[in-house]
Write a structure and sequence with these properties.
Length: about 250
């Protein structure tokens, strides 16, 4: 096939194909290729610029990967005490071990740390996961945060200008006091970046100890009344409206 043929004619780049199949993000799929774990029609794939057609067989670790299905997105109410990973080297329980049966292979949109809870978005499309994680998406992550310690409302308001903690610069954060009882308070915190342990590190910088961290919204998607441990699929129509995305369908040979 001509080298300059458009991607739609040659097929789809294998890393993108693997991401849409829910195997891994595109970046991690490229890592799988570099590690020699991906085959196309029985031959080892050595270049990310390898294309997959409708009749091709793709294997990862010698196991066949099913052709990508339509993009699906799920809301999950993560309990505290679960790692947001498929395998934990320390043997701690993971989100994916506790999901209800009958779901496709899913990956998370970002992460919630071990002791955090609340809304976690899950998808079968690695490319979508990466897209929704990017700060350029402009989506607000909103949290309810219980803290221990004296709350300075002026210091909370100052976070709207951004803050640097131990050499790490955090973008503007909206934080407000909701209620206070003794030394315990509930805050609402909203941020755009969602850097690793951002809420906990910024609260610690303000002299506050986080005792509970619940994500209640990720962009337009809300935790709402979803019970702890429950999963609910986002309606495909809502997916299209919120993301401007027509869910891809399985190609037929």
């Amino acid at each position: 096939m001509a080298e300059d043929a458009p991607e739609t004619e040659r097929g789809e780049r294998i890393a993108k194909w693997l991401a849409r199949a829910g195997v891994a993000s595109r970046r991690d799929a490229e890592r799988l290729i570099a590690e020699g774990r991906v085959k196309l029609n029985g031959k080892l794939v050595t270049q990310p610029a390898t294309f997959v057609g409708a009749e091709d067989l793709v294997q990862v670790d010698d196991r066949a990967v099913h052709e990508p299905e339509r993009t699906r997105l799920f809301r999950y109410h993560k309990p505290a005490g679960l790692m947001t990973t498929h395998r934990d080297p320390e043997g701690r329980p993971t989100v994916f071990e506790r999901l209800p049966p009958g779901l496709p292979r899913l990956i998370s949109v970002g992460r919630l740390d071990l002791n955090s809870e609340g809304l976690l978005l899950l998808t079968n499309d690695g490319a979508l996961s990466r897209r929704l994680e990017l700060p350029s998406q402009g989506w607000v992550r909103r949290y309810r945060v219980r803290v221990f310690g004296p709350v300075d409302e002026r210091a909370l308001a100052a976070l709207a200008r951004g803050v640097t903690v131990e050499g790490v610069r955090y973008a503007p954060i909206e934080a407000g006091l909701d209620s206070r009882k003794g030394d315990n308070s509930w805050l609402t915190v909203a941020l755009h970046e969602g850097k690793n342990r951002e809420v906990r590190r910024v609260m610690s910088f303000l002299g506050l100890q986080v005792s509970r961290l619940i994500r209640v919204a990720y962009g337009p998607f809300q935790l709402g009344t979803l019970p702890e441990g429950a999963v609910e699929e986002v309606n495909p129509k809502v997916l299209r409206e919120q993301l401007g995305l027509a869910a891809p369908v399985r190609r037929r040979g």
